[in-house]
Amino acid sequence: MKNSSVTICKIVGFGHSSGRASSEVAIYEYRVNGKLYKSDSPFPSDKSIKIGDCYNLKYSIDDPQVTDVLFEDGKVGFEGEI
Questions:
Q1: Mean pLDDT throughout 10-22?
Q2: Is 80 exposed, middle or buried, given 0-12, 13-18 or 19+ CB atoms closer than 10 A?
Q3: C-alpha span between 25 and 65 (Å, rounded)
Q4: What is the C-alpha to C-alpha distance for residues 12 and 17, in angstroms, rounded to an integer?
Q5: pLDDT of 22 higher than 70
Q6: Reported pTM
């Protein structure tokens, strides 16, 4: 992703994707420039992901709704509100 930055996201729930192949997704919240965003992402089946876990999140500076949760980096320590 060109022109991107990294922030922290917090898992707030789970759901199912609305795409053709129904799969479980993690619902997460993150903040960019003071604005709170909420989105979802499929996650690796070999990861144990729980509500409240935090991960690094790469987002597009041009459109902060374009994101990539960096599950492969592992959980990050974060206390407080996103």
A1: 81
A2: exposed
A3: 16
A4: 15
A5: no
A6: 0.88
